[in-house]
Write a structure and sequence with these properties.
The protein is built from nine helices and 14 strands. It has 343 residues and is an alpha+beta fold. The protein starts with 7 loop residues before the first helix and ends in a 10-residue tail after the last strand. The chain binds magnesium ion.
Length: 343
């Protein structure tokens, strides 16, 4: 729990994190789902009697999922929470509470000359998104580590037996995505380019004119409202969030459902500036991919986010690639070539 931070001897850190803990406690929202938050040995959460608990955990490591020298600290905090919230969205769950544990080198906890530490700016980004989705931070831990890493745990609630699963797709279902794909890959490419151009500098400076292009990578929007809607109105038969890329995440649905799929290349909504390859294989767009039974009425947009039909589910074909991409040149197997982060 975050009160572990008070034990300076254990973490190897001093009074700075005590002050940080006080600040964070003061900024955490109250919520009916959290009976007891930061400050005791455990948090106590409350769910309604007809609900079950959804839990997801996600580890972000410097050099693999983010770069301390590339990403603004606010973006690292924001993305850490976005990854967890996006998993809840994929199940149609509502967030109850978030827990974040950090391992950080000493210099990231120290207050800089500008008066802020890296870690307090990390929490600025995380708490901004938490506020947007009314998700209280109910605990966590902080320890000194040679490598910066952030582990997020999200706890959500979903009506019993009604969570959206990867295993619900059947032949004949239509396949849909929310939003547009490839934008995060474009942003990451641009950020890597800026990093290359500023070697020797401690932190990449992002010029104002690139902010919009980098937005989908630095500050992706988890689709919680859309996920909850798809569950509540029984629109989706199967769902997953696009964290690894369309080619990989659709393969997960095919595997879990025991089916194959056809995707129409011309129908894929591609983000401005992105290529078809980036839309197919670039990860971290955090849009929702779902299937719906034939004849099901699916709205063209949900809470201002476009919903696009991109293909259909077919019978599983033994020994063949589960996904076929239909292009103007004819059909071709779509290999799973998902996000490999910074490797
Ligand atoms: Mg996921």
């Amino acid at each position: 729990m975050l009160n572990g931070m008070a034990e300076g001897g254990k973490t190897g850190m001093g009074g700075a994190e005590l002050e940080l803990l006080r600040q964070i406690r003061g900024r955490v929202r109250r919520s009916a789902g959290v009976a007891l938050g930061i400050g005791d040995d455990c948090a106590l959460l409350r769910v309604r009697p007809d609900e079950e608990i959804a839990v997801t955990t996600d580890l972000s490591i410097d050099g693999r999922h983010f770069h301390v020298g590339w990403h603004p600290p606010e973006s690292v905090g924001y993305r850490t929470l976005a990854r967890g919230l996006s998993d809840l969205a994929a199940m149609g769950a509502r967030p109850l509470a978030a827990f974040v544990s950090l391992g950080l080198p000493k210099e990231l906890v120290k207050t800089t000359r500008a008066g802020r530490s890296w870690v307090s700016r990390f929490y600025d980004g995380l708490l901004r998104l938490a506020e947007e989705h009314k998700t209280p931070l109910a605990g966590g831990d902080l320890a000194e580590s040679p490598l910066a890493l952030a582990d997020i745990v999200l706890v959500g609630a979903v009506p019993r037996g009604h969570a959206l699963l990867r295993s619900g797709a059947k032949p004949g279902d239509a396949v849909y995505v929310t939003g547009a794909l490839g934008g995060a890959a474009v942003g990451l490419d641009k950020l890597a380019g800026l990093a290359e151009a500023s070697t020797g500098k401690k932190q990449v400076r992002i010029p104002e004119r690139w902010r919009l292009l980098l937005q989908p990578h630095l500050y992706p929007q988890p689709r919680l409202v859309q996920g909850e809607w798809l569950r509540r109105y029984k629109i989706a038969a199967a769902a997953i969030d696009l964290s690894d890329g369309l080619s990989t995440d659709l393969a997960h649905i095919c595997e879990e459902s025991g089916v194959s799929a056809e995707v129409n290349a011309a129908a894929i909504p591609i983000s401005a500036g992105a290529t078809l390859e980036q839309a197919l294989h670039g990860g971290e767009d955090y849009e929702l991919l779902f299937t719906a039974r034939p004849g099901k009425r699916v709205p063209v947009s949900l809470a201002g986010v476009a919903v696009t039909r991109i293909g259909r589910i077919t019978e599983a074909r033994r020994g063949k690639a589960p996904i076929t991409l239909l292009t103007a040149e004819g059909p071709r197997p779509l290999a799973r070539r998902g996000w490999e982060h910074f490797v």
